[in-house]
Amino acid sequence: MAGVLAADPTLADFGKDPLWITIVKAVMLFLFLALGVVFGVWFERKLISRMQHRHGPNRAGAFGILQSVADAIKMGLKEDIFPRTVDRVLYLLAPVILVVPAFLAFSIVPFGPVVNLFGAATPLQLVDLPVAVLFMLAMGAVSVYGVVLAGWSSRSPYALLGGLRSAAQVVSYEIAMGLSFVAVFLFAGTLSTSEIVKAQEQTWFAVLLIPSFVVYVICMFGEAARIPFDLPEGEGELVGGFQTEYSSSLKFALIMMGEYLHTFTASGIAVTLFLGGWRAPFPISMWEGANQGWWPVLWFFIKFTLTFCFVVWVRASLPRVRYDQLMSLGWKVLIPLNLAWILLVAAVHNVVVNDGDKTLGIGLGVVIVVGALAVWMRFDTVNQRRKEARKAQVEAEFEELSREPAAGGFPVPPLDLPHYHGVSRP
Q1: Low-confidence ranges of the chain (pLDDT < 70)
Q2: pLDDT of 375-390, one tens digit each?
Q3: Are 258 and 102 in contact (CB under 8 A)?
Q4: pTM of the model
Q5: What ranges does the record give for the region Disordered, renumbered to this chain (predicted)?
Q6: Which is nearest to 46 in space by CA: 67, 32, 31?
Q7: Domain extents in the chain
Q8: pLDDT for res 1
Q9: Torsion angles phi and psi, residue 119, rounded to 5
Q10: Alpha-carbon torsion angle 65, 66, 67, 69, nearest 10
Q11: Under a CB-based contact definition with an 8 Å cutoff, are residues 126 and 25 in contact?
Q12: What's the pLDDT at 300?
């Protein structure tokens, strides 16, 4: 580590830092995330307001940037109210369970290559593991306990329904999200985030594995419970979701921080696994020193910011979906599509890497995709029920219209009767 700096860190470069370097990197990561939440709230307000032709926060500080600071101070100093019926231990523990896994999940995100930090050569990443991506998925699953406990300990029906919604939603979309990573693992040959970034030296996986990237982006909104998939916090039917009984105090601030940290983690994982990580985009990558020193931190931050802007843009553009649509998309569309795509990628990867029979591999992939689509269309009961309900509605309208008396008292079909597909005119 003290020798010549390497551009690409590997698993062997981790675990050799002095204790004080590890502490410095942990503090820097904590400050980045904590200040990022404050800045992210202001940035989201300003960006959405400009999309809606408003000014947004513009009174507290320059460009209203101190508005989020004022909100944070207010929530930290506001009176902490405990409803009489809550389970006090779990009621206090739930916001902590929401926040801590989000901080831990971001620890496996690489910000840059090996650099010289205060005279010591160290990777710009807190920790890396042979199963780093699985660690991130595990932290996302642990945070669900915070949501469920927040709803259950509140002893409120609205909060409990919000917690149960979140558990079902995260379980559904974590399966699809995990499957979207399988193609990345096949191409990279590893689950280490630093080595996955190294595998994208020539081409980003967002280009090679477009279906996996699209599925991950959709699952990213479901995992972070962001619009249009913020069903655990449906204000219309659940008042405020699982945090209904939490007043605007420090506990509510932790819940909101956990939501933003999960959004940051999802954005960081998208940059790491699909957008080349800290590597410079083309044509900047043609510069020899673009991926050395501290420059990669800039490229990572630009990609991270653009990904977060996309999340905000979706929130400002799309409405909230119904809960049955949310679950149907996860179980009946994303998971079958992912399974078919994984089989196709495995077949093609076997041909490319192992130099197998190309005709057999391509034919097998096509057969797998066609068969998976046929099975999905055969068992797509949601669309079948919709067609049957629509047909029954049209037949009922025909029957009602045929009862209307015409001139002379004889029931005759109306002249302006519309034509519907699948139902003939009477």
Answers
A1: 1-7, 232, 234-240, 248, 352-369, 371-385, 398, 400-426
A2: 666 556 666 667 777 7
A3: yes
A4: 0.79
A5: 400-426
A6: 67
A7: 11-321
A8: 39
A9: 85, 0
A10: 120
A11: yes
A12: 92
At residue 411, the 3 state secondary structure works out as strand
Dihedral sign computed on CA atoms, order 286, 115, 126, 311:
negative
pLDDT of residue 238: 62
Whether residue 385 contacts residue 360, with contact meaning beta carbons closer than 8 Å, is answered with no
Q: How far is CA 390 from CA 223, 237, 361, 401, 422, in A?
A: 33, 26, 42, 17, 10
- Which residue, among 231, 222, 233, 224, has the nearest Cα to 331 in the 3D structure? 222
The residue count of the chain comes to: 426
- Whole-angstrom distance, CA of residue 64 vs CA of residue 2: 45
- For residues 293 and 115, the answer to whether their CB atoms sit within 8 Å is yes
Q: What is the pLDDT of residue 4?
A: 43
**Cα separation of 366 and 374, whole Å?**
12
pLDDT at site 227 = 78
Position of tokens 């820097």? Answer: 28
Q: How far apart are CA 425 and CA 398, in angstroms?
A: 8
For residues 299 and 279, what is the distance between their CA atoms, to the nearest angstrom? 7
Q: What are the pLDDT digits (tens) for 296-351?
A: 899 999 999 999 999 989 888 888 887 778 888 888 888 888 888 888 888 777 77
pLDDT at position 241: 73
**For residue 3, what pLDDT is reported?**
39
Q: Can you tell me which residue has the tokens 């105090």?
A: 249
DSSP 3-state assignment of 258? helix
Q: Let me know: does 326 contact 229? Beta carbons within 8 Å.
A: yes
Tokens matching residue 388: 């049957």
Q: How many CB atoms lie under 10 A from the CB of residue 241?
A: 25
The amino acid sitting at 236 is G
Q: Cα separation of 246 and 151, whole Å?
A: 10
What is the C-alpha to C-alpha distance for residues 288 and 252, in angstroms, rounded to an integer? 47
3-state secondary structure of 170: helix
162 close to 238: Cβ distance less than 8 angstroms: yes
CA 124 to centroid of chain Cα atoms: 24
> Residue 31 burial by CB count (10 A; 0-12/13-18/19+): exposed, middle or buried?
exposed
The distance between the two most distant Cα atoms of the chain, rounded to a whole number of Å, is 103
Rounded to 5°, angle at Cα 95 from 110 and 138:
45
**Cα-based distances in Å from 325 to 2, 13, 169, 334, 390:** 55, 46, 11, 12, 17
